[in-house]
């Protein structure tokens, strides 16, 4: 393959350089940040509510969850989707789940599929950070990200894919992997995060649009 180089004399006609957005479709646009503290039970992103954008503006959306800590028991971080602007969070989903973990004292490790954290045509919540959040120690928390693909499509199902990390109450370092689809051809226009009926003690959620606007 021939290597082509640019020299000064060949660039004299250029008056402006392309912007970063023109060079790549991988740029992120921060659309909304929601925080959860004591007594917060759910965090919801609803299209059109409080300046949230979750429609055909972008074909891919990215949710980042940061330092998730619950205030009681050992719950799991989970989510569900809505096709009616948050009136109901009960979209049918099928998913897969696996995780790697390693105990702090090096007494145990694992890499395995987790049948208790997947769904098969179920309308219940999908777990993201599973294995139990650490509520006994102040440093126990979970962070990660989830992609939601083309939620406004009225032709195809809606794929999602998530990866997260947390230190659980055992204590273990967990690396969790979730992927699946919302089995609906209705436009998904809201998503809700929760910690299995408990309250958040601390939570930061960020919503990004990925790539150029459609």
Task: Write out key terms for the chains shown.
214 residues; mainly beta; Jelly Rolls; eight-stranded antiparallel beta sheet; 45% strand; globular
Give the topology.
Layout: H1 20-23, E1 28-36, E2 42-46, E3 60-70, E4 77-82, E5 93-103, E6 109-113, E7 126-129, E8 142-149, E9 158-167, E10 172-182, E11 190-194, E12 200-210
Antiparallel strand pairs: 1-12, 2-11, 3-8, 3-12, 4-7, 4-11, 5-6, 5-10, 8-9, 9-10
- Helix-strand topology string: HEEEEEEEEEEEE
Number of domains: 1
CATH fold node name: Jelly Rolls
Q: How many distinct helices?
A: 1
> What structural class do you assign from the helix and strand content?
mainly beta
Strand content: 35-45%
Please provide the count of β strands.
12
Low-confidence stretches: 17-24
Provide mean pLDDT, rounded.
89
Q: Regarding CATH, which class?
A: Mainly Beta
What order do the strands of the largest sheet run in, or round the barrel if closed?
A: 1-12-3-8-9-10-5-6
Q: How is the biggest beta sheet arranged?
A: 8 strands, antiparallel
Radius of gyration: 20 Å
Distance between the termini: 35 Å
Helicity, as a percent range: under 10%
The coarse silhouette is: globular
Overview of the molecule:
With 214 residues, this protein is mostly beta strands. It has a single domain (24-210), classed as Jelly Rolls (Sandwich). The chain is 2% helix and 45% strand. It has 1 helix and 12 strands. The strands form 2 sheets. The chain has an 8-stranded antiparallel sheet with strand order 1-12-3-8-9-10-5-6, with no helix packed on it. Strands 2-11-4-7 form a 4-stranded antiparallel sheet, with no helix packed on it. A hairpin with a 4-residue loop joins strand 9 (158-167) and strand 10.
């Amino acid at each position: 393959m021939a290597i082509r180089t640019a020299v000064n004399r060949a660039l004299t006609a250029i008056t402006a350089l392309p912007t970063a957005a023109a060079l790549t479709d991988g740029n992120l646009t921060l659309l909304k940040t929601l925080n959860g503290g004591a007594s917060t039970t759910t965090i919801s992103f609803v299209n059109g509510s409080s300046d949230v954008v979750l429609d055909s503006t972008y074909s891919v959306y990215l949710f980042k969850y940061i330092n998730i800590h619950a205030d009681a028991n050992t719950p799991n971080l989970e989510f569900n989707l809505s096709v009616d602007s948050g009136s109901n969070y009960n979209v049918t989903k099928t998913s897969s789940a696996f995780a790697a973990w390693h105990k702090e004292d090096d007494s145990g490790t694992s890499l395995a599929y987790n049948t208790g954290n997947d769904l098969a045509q179920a309308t219940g919540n999908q777990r993201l950070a599973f294995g139990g959040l650490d509520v006994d120690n102040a440093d126990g928390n979970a962070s990660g990200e989830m992609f939601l693909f083309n939620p406004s499509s009225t032709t195809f199902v809606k794929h999602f894919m998530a990866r997260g990390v947390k230190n659980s109450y055992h204590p273990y370092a967990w690396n969790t992997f979730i992927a699946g689809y919302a089995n609906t051809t209705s436009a998904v226009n809201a998503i809700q995060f929760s910690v299995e009926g408990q309250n958040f003690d601390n939570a930061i959620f960020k919503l990004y649009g990925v790539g150029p606007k459609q």
